[in-house]
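Q: Please design a sequence for this.
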């Protein structure tokens, strides 16, 4: 997806901020979605950090009913599109639209050529067969996955643009800011494809990424101090003020 088209879809002129909610239950998810909307966000991601993906599905349905106009993305933790796309397709067929899917690992392999990506090709075919028509945001050189050498970031980014709507990368771990040089390399080699950043984004450091990145996926950086689960409205406002030009 062209980066300008992505930003225009959300009515943004700078990076789109989509808070990541580590779901505990429906009440906590609904409360945090409302906080995000009240803070000016057009959408959120829900992630099952503390339980199996099957338990997240009914919460997704409930949140869609509660927020029919909110952009709703999901991340099934440690699950690739091979398993996620059929679930998303079934939800869509039943009338529950999930607008975006974020995979921690989109299964790019920079050790292979651009045209020899069997896992990514399989996932692309499964996505097509599922009928799901949302935005695919795929983790590339992403935290907690197979380590990718810095000299291979450029190749990873180029391969990724073939398979997903938004390429997303990260720092080395949750809460750790990404190296600016890594992001600059991804920006250059993603070309016009939208680029997302997850992990380590805070109101204090966001400005250094703002020109290169089209999507901020942020959790701990806008949560209450020491709280993994709940958005701090004041920190969210600070980040939104920085990204809205």
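A: Design:
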């Amino acid at each position: 997806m062209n980066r300008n088209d992505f930003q225009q879809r959300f009515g943004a002129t700078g990076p789109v901020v989509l808070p990541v909610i580590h779901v505990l239950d429906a009440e906590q998810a609904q409360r945090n979605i409302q906080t995000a909307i009240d803070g000016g966000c057009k959408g959120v991601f829900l992630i099952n950090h503390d339980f199996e993906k099957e338990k997240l599905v009914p919460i997704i349905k409930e949140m869609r009913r509660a927020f029919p106009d909110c952009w709703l993305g999901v991340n099934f933790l440690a699950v690739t599109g091979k398993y996620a796309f059929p679930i998303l397709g079934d939800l869509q067929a039943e009338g529950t639209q999930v607008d975006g899917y974020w995979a921690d690992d989109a299964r790019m392999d920079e050790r292979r050529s651009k045209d020899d990506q069997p896992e990514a090709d399989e996932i692309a075919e499964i996505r097509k067969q599922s009928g799901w028509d949302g935005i695919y945001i795929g983790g590339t050189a992403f935290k907690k996955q197979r380590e990718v050498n810095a000299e291979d970031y450029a190749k990873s980014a180029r391969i990724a643009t073939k398979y997903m709507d938004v390429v997303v990368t990260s720092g080395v771990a949750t809460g750790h800011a990404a190296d600016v040089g890594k992001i600059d390399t991804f920006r250059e080699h993603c070309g016009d494809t939208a680029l997302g950043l997850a992990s380590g984004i805070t109101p204090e450091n966001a400005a250094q990424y703002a020109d290169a990145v089209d999507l901020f996926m942020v959790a701990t950086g806008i949560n209450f101090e020491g709280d993994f689960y709940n958005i701090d409205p004041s920190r969210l406002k600070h980040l939104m003020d920085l990204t809205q030009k």
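Q: Thanks. Anything notable?
A: The chain has one domain: 3-243. The first strand starts at residue 16 and ends at 22.
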